[in-house]
Design brief:
12 strands; single chain; 21% strand; 42% helix; globular; 11 helices; alpha/beta; six-stranded mixed β-sheet; six-stranded parallel β-sheet
Length: 277
């Protein structure tokens, strides 16, 4: 039996087990198991040390993405440049850290017809924002804007953008209108943090990529959609980054994205119905 899992804190609502399990079923990997474990930064080393040769890999969510870089035997150039790893592939007794978030963002935007934005604004300055900047650079942008709560604390993400060749303009979220006027807004703000800015984003005419996937639609996504704008949700990013993780962990390229999408959407619909009941 081969094992894989997603780690993070909190972890109980992670959709990753549904996506990976659906992939294994469609690929005929009946002896593969994917689980979820709650784990914070202080527990990651012990978890890694306890793994045996039956483990194929780990998916990592917050708050583990930066810690993973210090604990891996090797780190991909992308993960090091972004400053965070959401994947550890376990092979031949070694831990290889990688980043599939960037791939997930690029794939989600391209799938929605937004693969060549002329300009973009990223909301937030954390680890997901860093991946967003890398994705925008991969899509061909050479400059972008960032809106953060405290510009003085965005230095790490700004450094990531510069490593990918981006010229960045950074401003405070409470002066968002000064930074709007772009083709695309990428919101990496958690939960309902972007809600106060929904009307401003919708009025700007920009397409919106909101990394939140539940509850969906977010207030911002609903406002942009009502204004006739294009909206990309966090589920699409999660789906494509998970598909790349399956590829890395299994070593197979025939990853069934359609089956993973169907399983994920069904689970989200089930959760939404349960919440309404």
């Amino acid at each position: 039996m081969a094992r894989a899992a997603v780690l993070g804190k909190p972890i109980e609502h992670s959709l990753s087990p549904v996506l990976h399990t659906a992939a294994y079923a469609a690929m005929g990997l009946d002896d593969w198991v994917y689980e979820a474990y709650e784990c914070d930064e202080t527990g990651l080393w012990g978890f890694l040390e306890a793994l045996d040769e039956g483990w194929a890999g780990l998916s990592l969510t917050m708050p583990l993405k930066r810690t993973a870089l210090k604990l891996a035997d090797t780190v991909s150039g992308l993960a090091r440049a972004v400053g965070g790893a959401n994947t550890i592939v376990l092979r031949d007794g070694r831990r290889h850290a990688d980043n599939t978030d960037v791939h997930g963002m690029v794939a989600a935007l391209t799938e929605a017809g937004l693969g060549a934005p002329a300009s973009a604004l990223v909301l937030g300055g954390g680890a997901t924002a860093a991946s967003a900047l890398a994705a925008l650079a991969e899509l061909g942008l050479t400059k972008a804007s960032m809106a953060v709560r405290n510009p003085d604390r965005a230095a790490e993400s700004v450094a990531v953008g510069r490593r990918f060749g981006l010229t960045l303009r950074v401003g405070p979220l409470d002066r968002l209108p000064d930074l709007l006027g772009t083709d695309l807004v990428v919101s990496t703000l958690p939960g309902i943090a972007a809600d106060p800015y929904a009307a401003q984003i919708a009025a700007s005419g920009a397409a919106l990529f909101d990394v939140v996937y539940a509850p969906w639609p977010t207030t911002s996504a609903a406002a942009v959609r009502a204004a006739g704008g294009v909206v990309v949700g966090g589920f699409d990013m999660l789906l494509h980054q998970a598909a790349r993780q399956v590829e890395l962990m299994t070593g197979r390229a025939d990853v069934p994205v359609a089956a993973m999408r169907a399983a994920g959407e069904a689970e989200l619909a089930r959760r939404a119905a349960e919440a309404r009941a």
